[in-house]
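Hi both,

Apologies for the delay on this - the queue was longer than expected. I finally got the adenosine-5'-triphosphate-bound model through. Below you'll find the protein sequence and the ligand SMILES exactly as submitted, and right after that the structure tokens for the full complex including the ligand.
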Amino acid sequence: MTEYLPFIVAGLVTGAVYGLAGVGLVLTYKTSGVFNFAHGALATVAAYAFFVLNVEHEVSWPIAAAGAILVAGPVMGLILELITRRIATAGLAYQVSATVGLLLVVEAGTDLLFDPTVIRVVPAFLTEESFTLLDTSIAWADVIVFAFAIVVTAALALFFRVSRTGLQMRAVVDNPELLSLFGGSPAFTRRLAWVLGSVLVAASGVLLAPLLPLDPLQLTLLVVAAFGAAAIGSFSSLPLTLFGGLLIGVLASLSTKWFLTGVLSGVPVSLPFIVLFAVLLVFPKRRLAGKAFSVARSRPTWSAPASAQLVGGALVIAFLATVPSFAGVRLTAWTVAVASVLVFLSLSLLVRTSGQVSLAHVSFTAMGAAAFSHLAVDQEMPWLVALFLAGLIAVPIGAVLAIPAIRLTGLYLALATFGFGILLQSMFYSQDYMFGATGLGLPEPRPGWSWVDVQSDEGYYYLVLGFVAIATGLVIWLNKSRLGRLMRGLADSPMAVATSGAEVNVTRVMVFCLSAFLAAVGGALAAVAQTTVNGDSYQPLTSLVFFVLVMVVLGGEPWNAVIASALFFLVPAYMETGDITTWTQVGFGVAGVVIALLPAAAREVPRPIRELVDRVSRRGRRTKAAPVAGQRPLVEAGTLEVRDLNVRFGGVHAVDGVSLSAPTGSITGLIGPNGAGKTTTFNACSGINRPSSGTVCLDGHNVSRRGPAYRARRGIGRTFQKMELFESLTVRENVALGAEAARSGFNPLSHVFSNPVRSRRAAADTQHAIELCALSELAERPVSALSTGQRRLVELARCLAGDFRILLLDEPSSGLDHAETEFFGTILKNVVAERGLGILLVEHDMSLVLDVCAYIYVLDFGKPIYDGSPEQVTASPIVRAAYLGDAEVETAIELEVTA
Ligand SMILES: Nc1ncnc2c1ncn2[C@@H]1O[C@H](COP(=O)(O)OP(=O)(O)OP(=O)(O)O)[C@@H](O)[C@H]1O
């Protein structure tokens, strides 16, 4: 035991500091809903502030610490509160862009202010006295740090539990409006949380300062250990977060004893990320998923017409073909930039198209470069085969990384990838199968083809240009294919994609794998331009810069990738000042913050450019002929049967013993006052929530344990009370996804390819649904530009275009005027008469219900209280009473029973 004690003590001290930083992180995340990736950067600022005051200006340590913690901390907290308040509804990717941008600014800014070549040491400032326990000398300073973390966390936890302000802090995330109604001030509460959170991380920065020479990158990443601690606390519990910090500290310290050399020597540094990843992979979903805040999505909707894109593409390629004539010594930089278009393209596919955040793309390029060298040199494989396999090697790793996004939500994918980049560097870069421990660099050979000169810089440049041009064309084609629609649909509404019949997890993994493949190939091509590479060329921080660039550069694919790659690789090549890379990092970081703060409309390509491009390419003059609407056959007869359904949410018994039957060929109503359990019943029928008991059967086939996509493919389609449209797609594309999502199924190939007969049928079904809902005039407009009534029709058309037999329509007339509701009723009656569809309709508009329904079920407080024909329902005193109040229902039931 005594041999372990020094390690345990050291681990408890660093762990207490991690825990403190983690508690600060949880505090701000809990109250603002924005995860602060710049949390570690705040510790850096505080540590340097302490250094300047205490060491450079010889201010006594208590005053210097007070300045760094109690002055710099709150100031940083208030700035962050200001930023995060504005980006709270900006969408996850923009939230990450803002905080990652801040991190980049602080890291590079510190290097600009403090010459990185000078070693700065902060002397230990707490007491140097120590005592002996079990033959181990323990410093009183360590005891103070440990006790400080415990006392502060306990005090905060108590404050949250018992004080009014603490309760308000917890309430502010759930419902800020409600809090202000009850006299609390959400703004003050949020500000207080940010100040407290920043003070805590500033304290951890000051406490870490004497432990190692000051280095902005190391300090920023060290505090990233707080992410692992916060994960153990489920991003929610303060005491568990402190415990997580202590656990990580002790395990990391012990692993320095256990794993001194060999494969596992990187474990101590990587431990927080191993813990973070393990938590994301194994913690029960409900403990984490519920904590992730859902945020509105906002994406640009304009894209240049195809003709303009083609001309633009040809011009860019023509220009790039002239590069060797003027590039001179910078030709290698140009080759790297052209190859890296693939990397940015792959990141954009993930981030901009499918709405998933990756902060580890440099890791894929590193894998590609290392794998290519080993395959081409050590294994002597043919050049093209080695390149292809180098790309493939990244695919399974991409698939594993996508798991947190599948199990949980996008934020956790961002966290997992952020940790993965650092983990790969600290654990695997120095292994022989990557860059090796010597740092000598791996040879990256060019093809030895005799029929063409690709050995020279110029020849290789043209090879890369050709490669990238073809790959870019393929990516553009993919974007326009079914997979492209599915990816964009996924970014806008995963629920609508799933209930249309597509397996969203297959799509998510596919996109990640494809992206990893392209990035690895791009990495290998770029590495070959440089002839040798080592691990230093692949810093994890660069992944953050790549991500921010993809967010800030306007324009769609592939233009944003071309511009981003040029900015990153060519600007430093042409600006020859020593710290240009640091300056550009500051610039990109600031841009990452600014783009998130801008209103959504300002993130579009500026209007004059859009108008000019549209005008020059004469958009709108030649409209493509709409496909011919197909005749749709009668659907096979069947019935949706719900038996004794019960759904509970904690103590709420939302659905209590509901049974109903909705056959094809007729419209069945499901009505009841607000909160009666109608939507919950729908969700149980379509597989969005799990009932605690009861069954859902389609044609006698029990589908209760199946997911939404399976049920959709069996024939259950639905619309949503709170509309779930694909905002960045046009009306036609929205409706088309209804027709084709189910056809993508589990098979990755059918996500991309479809047989021509089926494609034509899907296009005809789409057109049929569009005409049926009178949307032909609007078919090419983005849905975000439509009125509520038109949007309801698009959702219905999407449902009608699919191969569904039973449609669940949840309050489809809400937000419609009288004429629109009547039109809606007519469409419903028509599709039932013509195609024999079955409809289960939840609706508050009783005139519509009584007009179209053949049979009606009535719920109240989750219980079935009546069912019958429209006439019986209208006449029933039970139903009338249900809409008036509780006591009357019971009296009415008694009266009806006696009668
Ligand atoms: N995810 C959830 N967690 C906790 N309670 C929930 C959840 N979803 C619904 N409830 C509760 O279940 C009950 C039934 O809600 P539901 O939305 O199904 O009613 P509804 O009949 O559709 O109401 P409305 O007509 O207002 O849409 C309500 O008390 C609601 O607060």
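Main takeaway for now: The first strand starts at residue 130 and ends at 133.

I'll put the files on the shared drive as well.

H.
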